[in-house]
Amino acid sequence: MFVAEGDFLHADLDSFYASVAQRDDPALRGKPVAVGGGIVLAASYEAKAMGVRTAMSGRIARRLCPGLIEVPATFTAYVEASRAVFEIFRDITPIVEGVSIDEAFLDVGGLRRVSGSPSTVGTTLRRRVKEEVGLPISVGIAGSKFLAKVASAASKPDGLLSVPVGQELAFLHPLPIEALWGVGKVTGGKLHERGIGTVGALAALDEQALIDIVGPGSGRHLHALAHGRDPRRVETRSRRRSIGAQRAIGRGRHTGAELDATLVSLVDKVTRRLRSGERIGRTFVLRLRFDDMTRVTRSRTVRSATAGTDAWLVAGRALLEEAMPMIADRGVTLVGISITGLDEAGDEQLELPFDTDSPTAQRRPDARLDGALDAVRDRFGSSAVTRAVLLGRAEGFSTPQLPDQP
């Protein structure tokens, strides 16, 4: 019997960082692996089966899983694997929307005559990623992006699940409310207090009653999702408005020099990615996570958009200096940065060079130096040239965002 399928695929690499580690080191395959140091940044399914979870402290993870193997993160390996997987996505269909470094939406509605049904396309995609990149990937298929993402989560690990057209609510309503985008700890707590534990129970509520519980924005959003309504299309033309990275540095006291070295390393990585994508930015954002797991964000906007490393180091160091009293009082376990307000490099508004200290007046020499360093690193590796402040320090872990799409 023919079963109608939706046009949307959500493809999500399984335990991406841990899977890359197991792929690259055969001795780790089939064993419980955690990526990261003081904080678990990713866990293999063998580790997850023992209760290890992302963002868990290494101490707790080792107690839950005595045989846990902890490995450092490798930024370059993740980016290379992501690019290889996205090349497969775009070879299958030109309509690809990257969500993060390890997941994307694909519209395969126009491929039926050429490539077969969406399930056939999904099976081909999973086989190619496994054979060509060596990684497991889960795929969800549905008539909307939201349901495709829920289906891919339900298919894990390393599976494929298609939600037939006309049976969306039968699939969705038995699921816990946490399956809905926007239901986190706070919203979920409010709903559970009222005995609402499944999507079906939430869908039974009048929209106004839901608004009274969680507010107008969330209420309307969750009411629509609970009824399977998500009109969004796969967007292929939008480029990121921000690029960033973050590093978990573990618990314990960290000196100003250690934090500065972490900041320098992150700025180097992010500005290099800016230049490789021919982008410039205007605002620097510093994110900190404290020992008690609370977070704070600070930002600074520069007068002239730039991709220059030195300009962003000045902005980042100023923000870090302002945050030092909080760090001294509360400790810090994660440092993250992002550069936002991105434009194409050719869209930069030039200034008359009346002020010799202005970013415009200083731009060309810095750009030549940054370009030369980028060329050396591209040819000989990211560690071929480094800053003196980083000598003798481990690279640590940076969480990359999805590389800019062409």
Automatic annotation (TrEMBL):
Its EC number is 2.7.7.7. GO terms for cellular component: cytosol. Transmembrane segments: none annotated. Gene3D superfamilies: 3.30.70.270, 3.40.1170.60, 5' to 3' exonuclease, C-terminal subdomain, DNA polymerase, Y-family, little finger domain. It is an enzyme of class 2 (transferase). The active site is at residue 103. SUPFAM superfamilies: DNA/RNA polymerases, Lesion bypass DNA polymerase (Y-family), little finger domain. Keywords: Cytoplasm, DNA damage, DNA repair, DNA replication, DNA-binding, DNA-directed DNA polymerase, Magnesium, Metal-binding, Mutator protein, Nucleotidyltransferase, Transferase. The record marks 17 as: Substrate discrimination. It catalyses: DNA(n) + a 2'-deoxyribonucleoside 5'-triphosphate = DNA(n+1) + diphosphate. One of its GO terms (biological process) is DNA-templated DNA replication. Its cofactor is Mg(2+). It comes from the Bacteria. Its main location: cytoplasm. Binds 2 magnesium ions per subunit. It is found in: Cytoplasm. InterPro entries: DNA/RNA_pol_sf (IPR043502), DNA_pol_Y-fam_lit_finger_sf (IPR036775), DNA_pol_Y-fam_little_finger (IPR017961), DNA_polymerase-Y (IPR050116), DNApol_IV (IPR022880), PolY_HhH_motif (IPR024728), Rev_trsase/Diguanyl_cyclase (IPR043128), UmuC (IPR001126). Mg(2+) binds at residues 12, 102. Belongs to the DNA polymerase type-Y family. Monomer. NCBIfam families: PRK02406.1, PRK03858.1. This is DNA polymerase IV.
